[in-house]
Design a protein that fits this description.
about 625 residues; alpha+beta; five-stranded mixed sheet
Length: about 625
């Protein structure tokens, strides 16, 4: 090797050592800086034709980041944040509904009401027993009101959370767009972009907690960010615009507004429906599904306990006309929401169930079979707005025209349905479920609970205006007539008046609460359309409380498991890029030794040149 070559090699080495010393010193100085990744210098050595070092290119600074672990960690973040939001909501609902056996939940209040009615059955004339029933009913109504409003507040909180997180997404995308522009500029002048990429990773990390995004680095060094289903959030260093209008009102059963994205090209898409995990997706599900289902359970409970106490079943009278047998039913008492139930055996020997639902708005017709919770029934809507029973009967006749049944008006505006001996068709039962208009002289039923959302109204579960059941838990209250006169719990007949020691009405109310099997609306999450949950009100409220408890337990277990996974990935991710002080300090010593060696070579070359010049 010539002296010149040796001198060049030493100079190149000193230059490289100086740059590596700077980088290593920066590593040591930033060892505690969050998100700072270990940097290294990439050295490329060039040789001339004689095999001598002709140059060292050492301008590229690399980051020590394991991209495989990074991607797994970012993906896990979105799933963990999703699970955590869901578990938090489920936990709050569990606390709200109460726990079986804790004496504080809805099931305990229903049990207390059952016990109060049992006491009243044994001593109907007792004022204290009557007041106990009324007080317990008020507590139940208040708990339903309070729980419903609390859930609505939770929906509003989730809606506000979506607003804040939509703003966060906008800010993050704009920050990444700005960093990408700086990265492009730095690359054009061959400056290091490692620190800028560190900053960008922190923004991608934040974004990954909000959405399950797919991030790809382009050849230019900028990022392409898309939603899980491929919609564009950032491309060609241009960020899309994220917007959210807070939902003005979160009415019962109504979904809130969604987060909309507008790409630079003008394409719009729904961000929530484009995601499958992340805290944004979770908040939307909490607001529009989980909490709405919980409100539906409260509405179902409020509606069924009201109907159980107030409604009476009017059985059809057995009727024989010639050789045909069937039933005759008075339909004059039908109110919107009331139903007629028919069971018959057709000519093929199959049992058929038919339900007629009374409506006052003909625009609701025809009704779907899901309009009732009765399993396997065919549902027809009947417009009773005319107030004429004959018109109601005419509609029922038309609905059953295709059957072999003999359906007619008996001449006194009563519905008559007979079998057909020739076709082997028989009528098994015919009845109506009627809501009385008053508190006495219409049977044992009593409107213990009423709807106070628009002044006191008797709850009939009508389908008009979106359905009376929807949001009913927010307005259920004890009948003011009952608050004024507790003896109505016993008095069901005034002419002649029944005895105050007559337990008929309290016994009826008790039986409706704890003895009557009801088919409950599967849309509330308990049971299914094919097999709706059937049981007493007491058993249903236990099912609801248990359901919420199970949801809380399951979601919490999943959230904890997911959090453990994310923590493990976070540790692995941090280990992949964090500064190891021992290694860096040891490397500093190596660099110092190398620097000294290169300096010694230069000194030796200088001495040799002096000797050579002096010799000449």
């Amino acid at each position: 090797m010539s002296l010149t070559s040796a001198l060049n090699t030493a100079l190149f080495g000193l230059n490289y050592n100086q740059k590596q010393l700077d980088v290593t010193a920066a590593n040591v100085a930033n060892a505690e800086t969050v998100g700072y990744s270990t940097k290294t210098i990439a050295a490329n050595v060039f040789y001339d034709g004689a095999g001598n070092v002709s140059g060292i290119l050492s301008s590229t600074i690399n980051r020590a980041v394991d991209e495989t672990v990074q991607k797994s960690y970012f993906k896990s973040l979105s799933e963990t944040n999703y699970a955590t939001e869901i578990a938090t909501a489920a936990g709050r609902l569990d606390e709200l509904f109460g726990t079986l056996g804790d004496g504080l939940g809805l099931n305990s209040l229903m049990s207390d009401l059952n016990n109060a009615l049992s006491t009243l059955v044994n001593d109907p004339s007792s004022y204290a027993a009557q007041q106990d029933v009324i007080g317990t009913a008020q507590s139940l109504a208040y708990q339903l009101n309070s729980a419903y409003e609390t859930i609505n507040t939770m929906r509003e909180t989730a809606d506000n959370g979506l607003k804040e997180q939509a703003e966060d997404v906008n800010s993050i995308l704009n920050s990444i767009e700005d960093l990408d522009a700086r990265i492009l500029e730095a690359r054009n002048v061959q400056q290091s972009v490692a620190d800028l990429e560190d900053q960008r990773d922190r923004y991608v990390e934040q974004l990954s907690g909000l959405l399950d995004v797919v991030v790809t680095e382009e050849d230019s060094g900028t990022l392409l960010i898309r939603t899980r289903n491929g919609n564009q959030l950032l491309a060609n260093n241009q960020a899309s615009t994220v917007s959210f209008e807070p939902s003005a009102t979160l009415r019962a059963g109504i979904e809130g507004n969604s987060i909309m994205v507008t790409t630079p090209g003008g394409t719009r898409f729904d961000l929530i429906s484009s995601s499958s995990s992340g805290s944004i997706k979770a908040l939307a599900e909490v607001r529009d599904e989980i909490l709405v289902e919980a409100q539906a359970q409260l509405d179902t409970l409020a509606a069924e306990v009201s109907l159980a106490f107030s409604n009476v079943t009017v059985e059809g009278e057995e009727t024989t006309v010639g050789v045909e047998e069937g039933y005759t039913l008075d339909v004059s008492g039908l109110r919107a929401g009331n139903t007629i139930a028919l069971e018959y055996v057709d000519s093929a020997g199959d049992t058929q169930n038919v339900s007629f639902v009374a409506v006052t708005d003909p625009a609701l017709l025809p009704l779907d079979d899901t309009a009732t919770s009765r399993s396997g029934d065919t549902v027809y809507g009947v417009d009773i707005s005319s107030g004429d029973p004959a018109d109601t009967i005419t509609q029922i006749m038309a609905a059953l025209a295709a059957t072999d049944l003999a359906v007619s008006n008996d001449g006194s505006d009563n519905l008559r349905i007979l079998g057909d001996t020739a076709a082997n068709t028989t009528v098994e039962s015919l009845s109506a479920n009627i809501t009385p208009t008053g508190n006495t002289d219409e049977g044992l039923g009593l409107s213990v609970f009423v709807d106070m959302r628009d002044g006191q109204e008797t709850f009939t579960d009508h389908l008009e205006k979106g359905g009376e059941r929807l949001g009913y838990a927010s307005g259920i209250s004890v009948n003011t007539a009952l608050l004024a006169d507790s003896s109505l719990l016993v008095t069901y007949q005034t002419s002649p008046a029944n005895s105050q020691n007559d337990s008929s009405r309290p016994q009826y109310l008790l039986g409706q609460l704890s003895g009557k099997a009801i088919a409950f609306d599967p849309d509330a999450g308990i049971g299914s359309a094919a097999t709706p949950y059937e049981g007493t009100l007491l058993s249903y409220v236990n099912q609801v409380v248990a359901y919420q408890g199970n949801q809380a337990s399951d979601t919490n277990a999943y959230a904890q498991a997911q959090e453990t996974l994310t923590i493990n990935l976070a540790v692995r991710y941090e280990e992949s890029y964090s500064v190891n002080m021992d290694e860096e300090l040891a490397f500093l010593v190596e660099l110092q030794n190398a620097y000294a060696a290169n300096a010694r070579i230069m000194q030796a070359v200088d001495e040799l040149f002096d000797v050579l010049l002096n010799t000449v």
